[in-house]
Amino acid sequence: MGRSRGGFSTKIHAVVDALGNPIRFKLSGGQEADCSWAIPALTDTEFGMLLADKGYDTDELLDFVKQRAAETCIPPKSNRTNQREYDKVLYKERNLVERFFNKLKHYRRLATRYEKTARNFLAMLTLAALVIWLA
């Protein structure tokens, strides 16, 4: 769990499949950058296309995906020196991960961050993901 001015904060880094079902997730402190957790979350995952938001636009991640013979659809950050092209129609499918997070918010214990330790929060997150898979 990360500390911020308002108290504890946590980020959930989720990997979902083409149907929006959770495959893997990692927890990090709320003050940490999103892009630093992308490669650890994708290391043991097979994928052909990576859809992610601007927070994951790093050369390191793009090289990692290219080494795995996969494609990316990540819009470039505005401060990137060489702006890359990306498929805007395909990028709209990224809402599957947003829908997964919306389903997680139905679980009050996760939405309000009742758990004070990362172990307990991850356990509740795993339980909610199992219920989402079964639904």
Account of the 3D structure:
The structure is a single chain. With 135 residues, the chain is α+β, with helices and mostly antiparallel strands. The chain has one domain (2-128): 2-Layer Sandwich (Nucleotidyltransferase, domain 5), CATH 3.30.420. It has helices at residues 38-42, 59-67, 88-91, 95-104, 108-111, 118-134, and strands spanning 2-4, 7-16, 22-29, 49-51, 71-73. The strands form 2 sheets. The chain has a 3-stranded antiparallel beta sheet with strand order 1-2-3. The chain is globular, with a radius of gyration of 16 Å. The two termini are 29 Å apart.
Q: What is the spatial order of strands in the main beta sheet?
A: 1-2-3
Strand content: 15-25%
Percent range for helical residues?
A: 25-40%
Order of helices and strands: EEEHEHEHHHH
General form = globular
